[in-house]
TrEMBL record:
One of its GO terms (cellular component) is early endosome. The chain crosses the membrane at residues 24-43, 64-84, 90-116, 123-143, 163-183, 190-211, 231-248, 255-279, 291-308. It comes from the Eukaryota. It is a multi-pass membrane protein. Residues 330-351 are annotated as: Disordered. It comes from Malus baccata. Its main location: membrane. Homodimer. This is Probable magnesium transporter. It is found in: Cell membrane; Early endosome.
Length: 351
């Protein structure tokens, strides 16, 4: 019998009832976002393959996919998912919403296995799982976001020297990747395309946060549309999203979806957290436990990425030396079964 004055233990029902209605709305929106975005990778990939069969593939600079209805279905599906994700941030904190983005990787991988017949070695599956666990660990132990009362406050944070330096480094790295590395290594190294998408994405998320704050305050009666900073953030979001779309299409057309999705998620999440820490100075409110946990998350991500790279040429039941002679992922488009592995580097031995 509990002693007098002791409160009874809280049941799971009491804990659940304590969750606010806004958090529940955010949770549902985040889950819906993962479903739509995960499915969009597959639909867009099908559209890219169909467009590449009758025109110039996106991976080599073609834009015939713009005339393919299936690609637009995938694009609309992704837009719906992103809108749901954007709305989720308006109702629930990022610490609840962001980790659920990992579900899109699982959905994408399952659909790729069923629909696209893309296979991933068992250690590659483990690598994906480690990447997801590491990223989720970092996000779950990230510090709480600071309260923002105006879009001009976000602008002031973006104009501080630390974030300006980060933005300058990101933009410089993106230009180097686009003009130097992509012409030479774009068709053979997956990290080139995904690097552009992730770096640009870290800047777009900061602008999306600003727009979300502006929209929420505007709907609550404090009009933020009169501030020029709101429209500057809008232009940044549009520019970054268009860049991400272009190079993500190239990555999806050149490499298999089951590898593109987790690596893109890991890099995008890591860089976004870094940009948020620099911009909002969240490290000032972190405990040593949080810092150690985040470092463990990064180590987990590195382990998962290493496994993905090491197993890129492995096939179940065959050693790497034997499976290295397999055909490229595009060989099935010529009537050859090329579904025996998922490479991080596209092979040219089918020529």
């Amino acid at each position: 019998m509990a002693s007098e004055g002791q409160s009874p233990p809280m049941s799971w029902r009491d804990s659940y009832k304590g969750m606010s209605s806004d958090n529940i709305k955010g949770l549902i929106l985040a889950l819906s976002s993962s479903l739509f975005i995960g499915a969009s990778f597959i639909v867009k990939k099908k559209g890219l393959k169909k467009a590449g069969a009758s025109g110039i593939r996106a991976g080599v600079g073609g834009y015939s996919y713009l005339y393919e209805p299936l690609w637009w279905v995938g694009m609309i599906t992704m837009i719906v998912g992103e809108i749901a994700n954007f709305a989720a941030y308006a109702f629930a904190p990022a610490i609840l919403v962001t980790p659920l983005g990992a579900l899109s990787i699982i959905i994408s991988a399952v659909l790729a296995h069923i629909i696209l017949r893309e296979r991933l070695h068992i250690f590659g599956v483990l690598g994906c799982a480690l990447c997801v666990v590491g990223s989720t660990t970092i996000v779950l132990h990230a510090p709480q976001e600071r309260m923002i009362e105006s879009v001009t406050e976000v602008w002031d944070l973006a104009m501080e020297p630390g974030f300006l330096l980060y933005a300058a480094l990101v933009i410089s790295a993106v230009f180097v990747l686009i003009f130097h590395f992509i012409p030479q290594y774009g068709q053979t190294h997956i990290m080139v395309y995904i690097g552009v998408c992730s770096l640009v994405g870290s800047l777009s998320v900061m602008s999306v946060k600003a727009l979300g704050i502006a929209l929420k305050l505007t709907l609550s009666g404090m009009n933020q549309l009169v501030y020029p900073q709101t429209w500057v953030f809008t232009l940044v979001v549009i520019s970054c999203v268009l860049t991400q779309m272009n190079y993500l299409n190239k990555a999806l057309d050149t490499f298999n979806t089951a590898v593109v999705s987790p690596i893109y998620y890991v890099m995008f999440t890591s860089l976004t957290i870094l940009a948020s820490i620099i911009m909002f100075k969240d490290w000032d409110r972190q405990s040593p436990t949080q810092v150690v946990t985040e470092m463990c998350g990064f180590v987990t991500i590195l382990g998962g990425t290493f496994l993905l790279h090491r197993t890129k040429d492995m096939v179940d039941g065959l050693p790497t030396s034997m499976s290295s002679v397999r055909l490229s992922k595009h060989a099935d488009e010529d009537g050859i079964d090329g579904s025996e592995g998922i490479p991080l580097r596209r092979q040219d031995n089918s020529l």
